[in-house]
Amino acid sequence: MVYRKESVFGFFKGMSFPLASIAVYNSVVFGVFSNTQRFLSQLHSREPEASPPHTLSDLLLASMVAGVVSVGLGTPVDLIKIRLQMQTQTFRETSLSLKNRAVALGEQPVYQGPVHCIATIVRTEGLAGLYRGAGAMLLRDVPGYCLYFVPYVFLTNWITPEACADPSPYAVWLAGGVAGAISWGTATPMDVVKSRLQADGVYLNKYKGVLDCISQSYQKDGLKVFFRGITVNAVRGFPMSAAMFLGYELSLRAIRGNYPVTSP
């Protein structure tokens, strides 16, 4: 349907804003996790220069902090992306109840681009409108990052021989890919809720909040609705996360020279 209406360019709708901000977003999230983990490790170490093994509690806490930070940065980015992607249909095709509004606005899309989308949301919904779906994103990202960083650290430690100080690029790539597939696969139910909440408001408001969205979605489509796209998410998560972790590790090694690099 998307290809018939908008050709191949329809699959890349709304990607300019995420692409422009993804480097900052990922560097902050990875930096917050790494520094929080380092801070917690130093608290347990009597020798400031020592690097004690990562404990599960430290990894979980650092992952949760990274998840909270990711919501603050990522919610507006995801919102703009989803709002722009939702413009596949015109107003007239969306709902008969919006017929008068469609006639008044014609066939023009709601948003002309990322900047216009931000300005429109702030004007009509206030600054809080940029954080629509933040609750669902918090429920997705906090456990999601726990299932992202923790498997990565344990897998790299498991794959890497004890004689090696740092994991090999192959170990980083494999562990990062597996961690990404696990994280994105398990995050799918809350990702569905988050996307529905953020798409809400383009044409009309259907949901009052996270629980109302879950309830309405379940009543209309059943339990299976929360697992739509789980295969795509898991498959996509492997190469994306593998490349991300590998780029992060190699960048740190290049910057720090011969100094050992903690994972991640």
From TrEMBL:
Keywords: Membrane, Mitochondrion, Mitochondrion inner membrane, Repeat, Transmembrane, Transmembrane helix, Transport. The keyword Transport applies. Pfam families: Mito_carr. Solcar repeats lie at residues 1-39, 54-158, 167-254. Belongs to the mitochondrial carrier (TC 2.A.29) family. InterPro entries: MCP_dom_sf, MCP_transmembrane, Mitochondrial_Carrier. SUPFAM superfamilies: Mitochondrial carrier (SSF103506). GO terms for molecular function: transmembrane transporter activity. It comes from the Eukaryota. It is found in: Mitochondrion inner membrane. The chain crosses the membrane at residues 12-33, 59-80. It is a multi-pass membrane protein. GO terms for cellular component: mitochondrial inner membrane. This is Solute carrier family 25 member 48.
